[in-house]
Amino acid sequence: MFWGVYILVFCGLLYLSLRNFPKHPVMSILVTICMMLAFTPLFTKYNVYEPIVLGFPLWFLAWFLIAAIFVWIFLLYTVTKLLPDNKELESIWETVAEQTKKLE
Amino acid sequence: MEKFSSILIILFISSSSIIAGWYVYRKQFKSARDYYTSGASLGPITLTLGLVAAFCSYFTFFGLASFSYRFGLGALCLVGITLPSLSYMWIIFHKKTLYLSKPMGWMSMGAVYGARYGDFVRRLIPILLLIATFPLLCAQIMATGILFKEVLGLPYWGGMFFILVVTCIYLTIGGFKGTSYAHVIQSCLFILGGIVLFGGVVQYFGGLKNIFLEIGKVRPELLSLNGKNFGYTMALTFGLGGCIGAITLPQTFMHTFGTKDAKTFKVWVSGYSFIMTMIAIFSVITGIAGFLLFPHLKGTDADAIWPLMSREIFSPWFGNILIGTVVGAGISTMDALLMGNAMNVINDFYKPLINPRATEKKLIQSGRVVMIVITLLAVLFVLKPIIPIAELAQLAFSIGGMSIFALAGGYYWKRGTGAGAAASIIGGVIMLFVFTFLWPAVMTQPAPQLGGLTSFLAALLIAGILYVVVSLFTKPPSQKVLDVFFNPALDR
């Protein structure tokens, strides 16, 4: 049952990502995988404390890299490259305002 | 003398927040939209720090430190590691909210759902949000009283009353803009407080590595992932529940409505998770290091580990200053919840149903009354501090999360209908209450009766099924509505 829900959540997030950024399917798939890993303690079997960097254990660093750093990289790529700038947003707002007036 | 330092910092937070509210008030509000959303005029720093303050609560500092004291580094995985995902999810769920809110003149959550699904769902949303956020509001008020009594040695009632009066003053006079300015001051102080304590802890033990090595010797399980405590189901419930709850709570909508331009949206959506992750890391490491100095705290006694550490690492009077800064995190969550609910009640209930001819001034005044009434009602519920705070927060996020299908489907599935949205929200919330309180009566633990799911995941699954099935069997939405929500210009 759990994995059924897990797969549904994965598909839902992937669908939304693809609907938002249809020209970037690879990015959408990768960022969805990383997000889902953030919700999954995959590293429970490495249940021994071994300090690696600054005393943090391996399982933590691996998880942090995948689920936080990678998602941040995709997030920064999205906000810098894929979202509209101020001018484009103004133009979207104007288009919607005009259409709303017409419909009224 | 020791208490005096914390009183001083709390007085500073209170007076500066009132000044921020008064600064906005004296410029006069042009309209109700100006009062409730700032008229989409706020910039990146105000909204980023404002959102951090709106979501940061006592749990972020005291609760998370206590959690990590008991369960170790895994606490960070459940809370901190999912925050970058929340930022990305904000973009994919709320991009259209940003595109549509300003031209559509939205100033409440019900307006968003109402424009897509009709009046019934518009009325349903404020009720859902009131049910979801009321326990959270009670928890923050109660935690303020407990902090004053247990940590600062001041009267439970006195401290709580003082903070509520201050919050109501700056909130009602300053509106969303004044509150956001107050949030900037509050968040700067509690972020600084968290950094200073973390820096002090690291220096006290001679470096971060030493903390982990010492803990590794005396209690290595704090640095390992215990499969029993951090099973897959629990991680998905906490991580997904936290993200979905944050997406559907009023704070997110308020900050999207208040966004001035595209750059502002980009900064707050990414800056939020970065700042919050850092705060979470600092709180978790402070809690883990606390075990080295205070190894005998049991159960909820561990909730005091953050204040205990601040007094142990620094002198008590300076430690009390740090503790005082965290009061800002509590009151900022309170005011955001009050503002969000007033915004919904006035614009989705009062104006369309009770007083359609209400003037702009009347809408603002009525909103002020609603905030004060909700505050007084919440006080009645916390006469005695007996409600478990962490569970209330989890429940609030779970209830809010039941509207996620209506939100996502409204923006991205043309076939989604008002009946489907209503069935999903009502059915999801009812099932959540049944699973949590009646059968099998579990909240965060997986239940065999639910196929190994937690009550939140099971209710979410039912809400999703109801949305799709009921939508497919009811009349599709009008082309007029679809033309707005699926305008090709929104695909940018």
Description:
The complex is a heterodimer of chains A (104) and B (492). By secondary structure, chain A is mainly α. Chain A has one domain (2-103). Chain A contains four helices and two strands; from the N terminus they run ααββαα. In chain A, strands 1-2 form a two-stranded antiparallel ribbon. Chain A is elongated, with a radius of gyration of 20 Å. The model of chain A has no long low-confidence stretch (mean pLDDT 90). Chain B has two domains: 2-388, Up-down Bundle (Sodium/glucose cotransporter), CATH 1.20.1730.10; 402-492, no CATH class. Chain B has 21 helices and no strands. In chain B, 61% of the residues are buried.
List the helices and strands and how they pair.
The complex is a heterodimer of chains A (104) and B (492).
Chain A: H1 2-20, H2 25-38, E1 51-53, E2 56-57, H3 58-82, H4 86-103
Antiparallel strand pairs in A: 1-2
Chain B: H1 2-25, H2 32-37, H3 44-55, H4 58-71, H5 74-79, H6 83-104, H7 109-117, H8 119-151, H9 156-204, H10 208-218, H11 232-248, H12 250-257, H13 262-293, H14 305-313, H15 316-354, H16 360-381, H17 389-401, H18 404-412, H19 418-438, H20 455-472, H21 479-485
Helix pairs in contact in B: 1-9, 1-15, 3-9, 3-13, 4-13, 6-11, 6-12, 6-13, 7-8, 8-9, 8-15, 8-16, 8-17, 8-19, 9-13, 9-15, 9-16, 10-13, 11-17, 13-14, 14-15, 15-16, 18-19, 19-20
Q: What is the first-to-last residue Cα distance of chain A?
A: 47 Å
Overall number of strands of chain A: 2
Q: Quick one: biggest sheet of chain B?
A: none
Instruction: Describe the sheet with the most strands of chain A.
Output: 2 strands, antiparallel
Briefly, what CATH class of the largest domain in chain B?
Mainly Alpha
For CATH, the homologous superfamily of the largest domain in chain B is named as: Sodium/glucose cotransporter
